[in-house]
Design goal:
By secondary structure, this protein is α+β, with helices and mostly antiparallel strands. It has two domains: 5-104, Phosphorylase Kinase, domain 1 (2-Layer Sandwich); 116-217 and 236-327, Alpha-Beta Complex (Aminoglycoside 3'-phosphotransferase, Chain: A, domain 2), CATH 3.90.1200.10. Helices cover 49% and strands 14% of the residues. Strands 1-2-3-5-4 form a five-stranded antiparallel beta sheet, sandwiched between helices. The protein has a two-stranded antiparallel sheet with strand order 6-9. It has a two-stranded antiparallel sheet with strand order 7-8. A hairpin with an 8-residue loop joins β4 (85-90) and β5 (99-104). α4 (120-131) crosses α11 (259-267), α6 packs antiparallel against α8 (182-194) and α8 (182-194) runs parallel beside α13. The chain is globular.
């Protein structure tokens, strides 16, 4: 990016915003977050507060994946599940030519476990709307983010095969002793949970994939002053087994006694009414496979120099503890 990010976004705003009926001058611009994935700036024009988000890049190459993600953000905003997108535009010179997405700012708080327990039906209805959105599914297919013809059994088997291949690659490398000790633990859990797919095939086979957020941890939810929930950070959106989102949410935030309540609320409404028992059976397997993915991701990040050894050990251990508990039949919080 060229120079000061605040100055850059103000220049961009003067050029782009009037085309969309917004004031040319900003009253306020503040960097909210900066990472390798995106720079996020809170902006204000009059009484309107907005978020401008764009990926760091190079003038030599516009990030095509970021362009596709910007278009997807429009679809997400139209569902009402995420903040509404006001416009998106190429950033030209001042922002390295990368696509800038401008959306409404939602002032809210991160939910705690009590919120998920007390608003379980709202959370279930939100995920059900996401997973059954045909227009969003078509947009994901057009971008190559999944095959709508694949059923959930194929997705579970593909997830297992990908984990096995990644583990094999990691096992053939030299590691510090503390990191090397993680590999047999991950391998043991992968062998055990992977073997559970076949006995549960009736819960997976023939079930359609749908749009899946892919990271429904509490940091990606916002609860506004009217207790309305919003999802943010849609970078992992793709066509997958909806039980992937459901398994994360239930395991992290919902007591097992309330899982049937969630599943019944999730199944209500719409032409497609999923089998609640099959949904929970798949959730009990897709979350462990996701936890294994995160464990391998930590080691891959260590190998790439993105994490220190101490950071990786702190990141991976909670997921291994989860997997120990899940193998023992202890589900949820």
């Amino acid at each position: 990016m060229q120079g000061d990010p605040i100055l850059a976004v103000r220049r961009f705003w003067r050029r782009a915003a009037p085309k969309f009926g917004l004031p040319a001058e900003l009253d306020e611009a503040t960097v909210r977050a900066s990472s390798p994935r995106a720079i996020v700036v809170m902006v204000r024009a009059g009484e309107k507060r907005m978020i401008a988000r764009w990926p760091p890049g190079s003038l030599l190459r516009v990030d095509s994946e970021a362009v596709r993600a910007a278009r997807l953000q429009l679809f997400v905003g139209e569902t009402g599940l995420g903040p509404r997108v006001l416009f998106w535009e190429q950033g030209a010179l001042e922002l390295d030519g990368q696509p800038v997405v401008v959306s409404e700012a939602v002032e809210g708080r991160k939910p705690d476990r009590d919120w998920f327990r007390d608003n379980l039906r709202q959370a279930a209805a939100m995920l059900a709307r996401l997973h059954r959105d045909a227009d969003l599914g078509e947009a994901l297919e057009n971008q190559g983010r999944g095959d709508p013809r694949a059923d959930c059994l194929a997705m579970a088997r593909a997830a297992r095969a990908d984990l096995e291949a990644r583990l094999d690659r990691l096992a053939g490398q030299d590691w510090p002793p503390e990191a090397a000790a993680l590999l047999p633990r991950l391998a043991g859990h992968l062998a055990w949970f992977g073997a559970q797919i076949q006995p549960q095939r009736a819960a997976f086979s023939g079930v359609r994939v749908g749009p899946v957020h892919g990271d429904v941890n509490d940091s990606n939810w916002l609860i506004d002053g009217a207790n309305r929930a919003w999802l943010i950070d849609w970078d992992g959106l793709r066509l997958e087994d909806p039980a992937l989102d459901v398994g994360m949410l239930l395991h992290w935030y919902v007591p097992p006694a309330l899982w049937p309540v969630f599943a019944l609320a999730y199944a209500e409404g719409g032409e497609f009414r999923p089998d609640p028992e099959a949904l929970l059976a798949r959730a009990r397997l897709r979350y462990p496979l996701h936890a294994l993915h995160l464990g391998l991701y930590g080691l891959e990040a260590l190998r790439a120099g993105q994490f220190t050894l101490a950071e990786v050990l702190a990141f991976v251990e909670p997921f291994l503890s989860d997997l120990d508990r899940l193998r023992g039949g202890r589900f949820g919080v």
